[in-house]
Fold these 3 entries.
Entry 1:
Amino acid sequence: NASLDLGGSFLATTADSLVFDNNFEFSASNPQPPPQLTVNVPIGLRFRDNPGTITVQGTGNNLQFNPEFLEFTRNPTPPGLAVQPGKTLALVGGDINLEGGNLLADGGRIEVGSVDSSSFVSITPIDKGWQLGYTNVPAFRDISLTKKASIDSSSEAGAGEIQVQGRNIKLTDGSAIFAFTGSQPGGTVSVNAADTLEVSGISSDDSVPTTIYTAVYPRGSGTGSNLNIQAKRIIASGGAQIGADTYGEGAAGNVVVKASDSVEIQGSVVIDETLPPVPTAIGTIAQASSTGPGTKLTLETRRLKITDGGQLVTGTFSQSQAGTLDITASESTELSGEGSAISSVVGKDATGNGGTVILKTPNLIIRDQAKINVDGQGSGNAGEVRVTSDTIRLENKGGITAQASSGNGGDVYLDVQDYLLMSGESVISTKAINGNGGNIYINTLTNNRGFIVAQPFGNNDIIANADQGQGGKVVINSNGIFGLFVRTRQDWERLRPQDLDPRNLFTSDITAISRQNASLSGTVQLNTIDVDPSQALVELPNNLPDPRDQIAQNPCQRGIGSEFTITGRGGLPPSPNETLTGNNIHVDLVQPITSGENSQSANINQPKTFPIAGRDIIPAQGWIFNSKGEVVLTAYDPTGNIPQRNSTTAVACPALF
């Protein structure tokens, strides 16, 4: 339980030397006298071969966690390595291991850097002490936090800054990097991994998740600390939490997560048997005690994968507005498994409105009960979902929803370049219980090539219904819609009179109705090019054309309305008006040969011919259908609108020559 309490800033390093601006280096292992007396401030740390490891041991942090609302509480400061308020605590070396150790700087600055050989770390004086720079570091080493270790710059005034820089950074066992702020704005928390950042698991007593976290204290009026995370690959698993919340008057800090390769959010954990599992989550929440709003979470990566109950989330449990999720995955996004979600949540007792979920990715797959959703469980409105993608596949109960209990349903906007594919009881819904149904807008005509396909009898539905209020609106612009049936309220009274619920019918449907009030049905507007054969027969127009306008009345007259061409044979051109081409066969004239010799030729039996009685050619006057449904041209007018031609007076076409 030992602790080190320092009166000023403190820097612990395994560097070979301190470098001053006059190129003098001070080295404990190889001391050299300076050329003259100097009081210069060092400008950097030089690491030569194999920087040494720094290890800090301790009893771990005192965080507590409420699994119902995903709330962290910071208890009195635990013993650890601490500096005076507003000062800098820095550890710079090779590998850095915090084994239950706590690094504490109340409103100050904490620097943790792990560097490899031949590195130079710059030192810049600032009001709080020093700021370290890693521009001239060719490679980094690893940092680990285990056994509830912590890096904590919290303050009742304004939280301080934290910068953690390494190659692979790993937090486990309920360890934490965090900053709570009070009356003043919090400083930025930055975690930068050249390779992989891994945040996983909970404490050994199964009570506190591992976390990277910033927050505004209850009754705190300052803006929360911004959280910036960068890595090649980010993995969060086993109930770990990454994010920024507010419990007070101040807004939560912004969260920026960037991974050049991938972000993986995996799994959940049971902390309280009476409550649902705690999802592994990256998010921002306006907690129940807050009056300040949520904030924006920006995530940029190449591949985003959320599985087995992991979540990207923004939400409100208070009167405050939930934040915004702005997600860009340049290659693909995949959600799979029950509970897996990209979501904005309004808690059941909250009056604030839900946030907006924005996703831009070329390929989106949502399957196995995973969802993108805005969920209004309180009286606030649900929020919005906006997805831009080349392809969207909803499989095995996958969904995109914007539903509300008391408030109005949210809106769903889908801009799809190529196709939207729905199968296995998937759903797109803006359903509301007490409020009005939300709106669904699907556009696949941006490049004039997209279409929508649903498994026809797979219970794949597009729903903008309301239980009590006005039904919503469904607007679809597409080259083609296949496998979906548009259903009115009258259809549901016939097909599902007991509940009017499309989720309980095996067909795939588009609907926008009010279940309790027939006069409050919404609208379905389909702007399509292709017709879906599954929609049964297409109604034909009743203004049929007049046969007299479709059939030439005098086909025997040469050069009027008709043309007949015989394709050339044996070197002849296709028509008398065209010249020969180079590909035609040319045969020269030959001189007949006479011979005195007897010649014998085979006798060829010509087939017998039988005369065929001549029949007059009569211009057709119309057509009828025979008993086989075939079209038969007639020499009379079947409509009776013109005088009938008498077969005894019919004349043939006049001779042309």
Entry 2:
Amino acid sequence: MYAEEIKVVILGNSGVGKSSIMMRFVKDEFSATQPTTMGAAFMSKIIKTNDNQFKFQIWDTAGQEKYKSLAPLYYREARIGIVVYDITSLASFGVLKTWITELQKQGPENLILAIVGNKSDLQDKQEVPYEDAMNFAKQVDALFELTSAKENRGINDLFMKLASKIEQQKIQNSMKKNVSSQSFAVNSNQHNKQGSCPC
């Protein structure tokens, strides 16, 4: 089966676990000493749904300030944007809007957005209330998922939900094309009738 390529970008402050999320999803691995990403890292994985197969091309962007000018290069033509915060860091949650604004400037209009609260295994140190994160996700029309790359919680669910969103978009686009082609056919028929000789 053909696997449609889908560009995915992961954004967020340095240290929130972006690389760990990607590593857990693609390789099912976790390292407590994951090195800081320089510029960007890339991995891919094929994900299967009931009706489709997608090749997620995942770009993990560096969260450090000195790399921010490079980030827009990776946002272009992205179909999915995953914006990550650390549930134990209110500061990492507070800058989500900035990351999203940057992403939406460069991404397509139909960009699928996900807000991810990582390190859910550290709930005793949680600084970001669940309700606040949920409400924010609703405000920006994004999926919301709590994850723990360390304990492999919510990672596969996140990517399966994103794949389902892509499927929904494909169906909607197909329906729009059918409606517009039917409309064109009706208009053409009416034009032909009007132009035909009544004699």
Entry 3:
Amino acid sequence: MPTDLNIEWTEAIEANVRYFRNPLWLKSYFDHVHRDAGFRERWIAAAGVLDDRIVVDVGCGPGNVFATLGGRPRRLIGIDVASEALEHARQLGYDPLLADAQNMPLSSGIADLVIVNASLHHCNDMSAALKEAARLVAPGGLLVTDHDPQLSAWNFKGPGKWLWDLRLRLYHWAKIGFHASLEEQSVALASEIHHRPGDGVTRHFFESTLRPLGFDVEIFPHNHRLGANVLHGGWGKADFKYRLGQRLSSIEPDAPEAALSLMCRARRRLPGESPLDRQDVEAVI
């Protein structure tokens, strides 16, 4: 497997590797995460079908995105730090590359589509990872990110923060998802270094990073439930537990700022193309 020998092995990267080294955790993640119909509909609406395109999936894990979207890409490159996850992705059709998303040994402008799903918040430097992903996009190509926590939605304070801290014990007691095992819970949380109160992504983060690099940027907040309607102004309704924590933190749960995740679709302009302002972008949707 092609491997970048210059990876800086931080605690977060080590946690990601350790998580996917466990075959039971890997299988559970692949079988249940980002595999629903709403995810597929939302991504096809945002990114289009993968057929005949050169696609780079940054932080691909075991290959969940391609397994859900399907298609016949001309080439599909999967980048991750976990060799076990990459081997699983290879069996699905990925060309695996073991490398850090913050410093990828690939030429600039090679991809028609760069996918970054649920990956930025695992990177020590989210800005560096986003810029690296953008560097790979060819003129006229797309960069699509999703499932990174919106800072304003998770900025729990006071009683809401107390409830957030208590959730780990409650989830473990109820055997919910990766919280069923204390070891799995600990490793998963250690890898999600920007998924905590007071941290996460914002509209400004995406726009201020990507617009100077020649991208037109669209941001779509959502609560993980809706499909293509997210791209037309819908964001859905979060589960009660999140809404309760938000209310206890003086966050209005029905506002777009309370949507749990931000999807970003950014198109690299062709040479000589003028940037679109936000009103122009909304008119195109």
